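Write out this protein's structure.
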Amino acid sequence: MMVSISYARKKTSGREPRSLDPWQTFFVFLLTILLAGCAGERPKPKVAPEEAAPSPQRLREAIGYYSGTAYKYGGDSKDGLDCSGFVMKAYEMAGMHLPRTSEQQFQGGKRVSRNNLKYGDLVFFNRYCQSKYSYATASILAGLFAWDEQPCHVGIYIGNDRFIHASATRGGIMVSTLNQDAWKRSLIGARRYLPE
């Protein structure tokens, strides 16, 4: 079956109506089918669900996930974490990206005083808390050296003067109190990263 398409022209032009050759007819037929198919409703693109905003609840869940993880210097996985690796991974799981080292974490965020600490604030400690010193030695040495503003240790404040951190001396994630002499003397500041 051959479809004949002719162009209507005014008789005054002096030309006869012209028909399309078979290839032109096939092309017009194919074009008509394609355009008819495009006329239907277009499928809507899938929209990825928005990530929930970082919150204390999400951070609690992340801390719970990493509880019981062993200490590993330079570690940033469930196989082992150091202090800043623990903070970075917990916040990452809660929906926020923080720098990797305690020094970089100390440079960011919003400064907060010890009196205004809230759940999720980061607490930073100077060199007197390093694992080579015992808690008792850290308390004694804290008064002998000049004040050092560079942190060597970081933890996450969890309320009631307590913080959770990856401890080299205790071999993993643990809860300590800011009222313990060594931590009280070596606390150099706190930063808030969670939105208020």
